[in-house]
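note to self — DONT lose this again. spent like an hour looking for the file last time. sequence + predicted structure for the chain T wanted, 711 res
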Amino acid sequence: MAQERTHVAALDEVVVSGSRSEQKRDDVPASMEVLDRATIEQEQINDIRDAVRDMPNVSVKRAPARFGLAAGNTGRDANAGFNIRGLDGNRVLLLTDGVRTPRSYVFAANAFGRDYFDINLVERIEILKGPASALYGSDGMAGLVNLITREPQSFLKGDATIGGSASVGYSGDDNGWHTSLSLAGKASDTVQWLVSAAGSKTHGLENMGTNDSANSDRTTPNPEDDTNKALLAKVIVTPDAGQRHAFTYEHVDKKSDYNMLSGRSKPPYTSTSVIDLQSQTDMDRDRLTYDGRVRVNSAVADTLQGVLSYQKASSREYAFEDRYTAADRVRDVVYDENTWQLNLQAAKMVRASQDWAHNITYGLDFTRTDVSNLQTGLVPPAGETYPLKRFPDTKETSSAFYIQDELIHEQWSITPGVRFDHFDLDADQTGFNAPAASLDGSAVSPKLGILYRATPQYSVYGNYATGFKAPNAFQVNNFFENIQAGYKTIPNPDLKPEKSQNFELGFRGRTGIVDFDVAAFTGNYKDLIENDRLVGGRGIPRVDPLVFQSVNIGKARISGFEFKGEVDFTDQGRGFSLPFAYGHTEGTDQTNDRPLNSVDPDKGSIGLKYNAGVWSARMDVVHFAAKKREDVDPTEVTTGQQFLPPASTTLDLSAQWRIKPGLRLNMAVLNVTDKKYWRWSDVRGLADNSPVIDAYSQPGRTFNVSLVADF
């Protein structure tokens, strides 16, 4: 009976990202990953890279910081963003409390990532695999990641009117210290509040390199200082049982200072040799959100929800280059997104008969984003003058209507849905040195999910979903011209949205001893946009320069499978359990029959957990399959062949000691065997004849520790 009670609790886990409303996780006809606060703490997850280290078919790129002032951007974007089932970048929709977060922006030596988060402010991470466009709109072709922030109720136990938590921790892979403090209170029966603050001081990610040279031969990490600060404030007002009004302010500020020793030239020097290179990056995000929910019990809706959010995000990259005798150079690049988002949603439960019920969700979305960029500095490229814009200031607007109906009949749940989207890009010619094109369009995205509960222990599901992703301001109007060097990029006002059709079949089991999820998926994509594709020219300076442009390149297919679960031998929460997971994905560019390099090699994990009440321990073995030559498009590397990371297996040990109620010590040893290994996402484009391959390796044996106190 104890085991049964444990697994009933697991079945009752509630998520919101599958259908934009609360529902049991096992009622979602799609693959999901969920990390709760207890897991985040026990596994000492400090950033989004840590969050997905053993998830099947999910990864986060984190290449080493090795970039120059005007060429190369490797690692400048740090934790660049998520890759889900072979698609990455802006094709993954990132949300905080259901609100869109900024996109990435990559051009030439500039790379702005998407890690505008602090995990200490997060209560739960939900990852939905597969297209999310039907309910969430553009940018969800690969899936979505929703980081749900902490609530006052997380700290208020029983009838307590005040509570909180404090933590301090050390992470060995970046030699960093992390601290957080949260206070929550109940001002009255109807008002609760929360203030959470977090900060960290870290350094560059460790690796297995051994060359400390202060030049391009260096393979050890460049000196790096990262400072992160974050603040979350919430007020929850519940005038009665049928109303809830949440007011949220979130601030995240991330700064990095680099001493780019690897960017220095090797003697003997010429006039333009680089003898010092310093760089700084700064990412700021501020968000104000109102989320109101009211029970109305009317003929057209049982509940109404309104979300209004304003978000201001700014990223800056600054670099100073000291050259031997030539004039020193400076680049100062800013990328900004200021966004208003509005969502109005209604839900209605209708019983068509004694056997059939309809759970209908419908709503309106409106988003307006003002996107801008600016480059200034000293000693611009020949033929250019500062300030420069690589694309014009653009107002991006999208509006949508969506509706979903979950039909429930005994063991069946059938969930059709459709979304109607319209997008508009309005470009401002001011300060832009090429004709600025505007663009608009519409799309219809249907979906269908089916879930059959064969028994209380087993269920099967299938889903069909279409998706689309509208071009963004940079893709439509990217412009750069260096006639003396013989190349330029030009706008493309004829870009079409990317489109997808995806199928997934899944099987779930909850037996009381073994919990498992198995899924197989396939997706067809067309009109995929490739940035900066060579479309013409012979590269003759001043006469016939090479011409680059963002273009729709045709079709691709991605397919794969994954399984995960846990064998549980615990009794009343104590004893052994064995978690496991494995994922496989493969993809092909059907226009040239070449593999998609965005697809990661297989990843599998198996663990052994033991819980003794006052303490628990865990061992995890993670296997990364080798990247095979036949699975690589060789054209991404222009000199030599692509470096192929070999297969590798790592071992991690972790433990938690519950010293007393409300006080916990977490400890971990990662990569216990000190294995040298690489991750495919970090080495894409790296040639196998590169003398600095070790610079791209992962950290060796490291130690993590954290102390958490609840009060």
